[in-house]
Write a structure and sequence with these properties.
By secondary structure, the protein is α+β, with helices and mostly antiparallel strands. It has a single domain, classed as Alpha-Beta Plaits. The chain has two helices and six strands; from the N terminus they run βαββαβββ. Helix 1 packs antiparallel against helix 2. The longest helix has 11 residues. The mean pLDDT is 93. The structure holds ligand 2BA. The site of ligand 2BA has 12 residues, from strand 5.
Length: 106
């Protein structure tokens, strides 16, 4: 058994949820915040048999898309009135971790 952690953009959450439901893939959604942009995102926790991990990954890749976001760096040590140009960063489709589940109990 594996645990897939998939961090996705909130915009992809509805379609990904629907696709998982259609495929009967059990999951939990957590509201999370990215450390760099400090914007809300969603972390899906999916406990799944090893032979279905590829199916989970295919669904994530088909439903989660890359988008551009604007990062406005904080002033940090600079003068408070200093203007720091915002920078564009590419976000997504998804950041995925696949972990071995030692046990699964209900
Ligand atoms: P954030 O940390 O808010 O990062 C959003 C996007 O900003 C990242 O997209 C990446 O393109 C950019 N970025 C992040 N850190 C950066 C840095 N130090 N310098 C320049 N650009 C940077 P993604 O890579 O698609 O990541 C999307 C979200 O996935 C992240 O949101 C974070 O919530 C999560 N994530 C990504 N890598 C992770 C990791 N190694 N561990 C835990 N969470 C991670």
């Amino acid at each position: 058994m594996k645990v897939v952690l998939a961090i996705v953009q909130n915009a992809d959450r509805p379609n990904l949820t629907e696709a998982f439901q259609k495929a009967k893939i059990r999951h939990t959604r957590l509201n999370t915040v990215g450390g760099f942009l400090s914007q809300g995102n969603t972390t899906f926790v999916i406990g799944i048999d090893d032979d279905r991990v590829d199916q989970v990954l295919e669904i994530i890749h088909s439903e989660c898309h890359e988008r551009e976001a604007l990062h406005r760096p904080g002033h940090g040590a600079m003068h408070p009135d200093a203007y720091v140009s915002p920078v564009h960063v590419q976000v997504g489709g998804a950041t995925i971790f696949i972990l071995n589940a030692e046990q699964f109990r209900l």
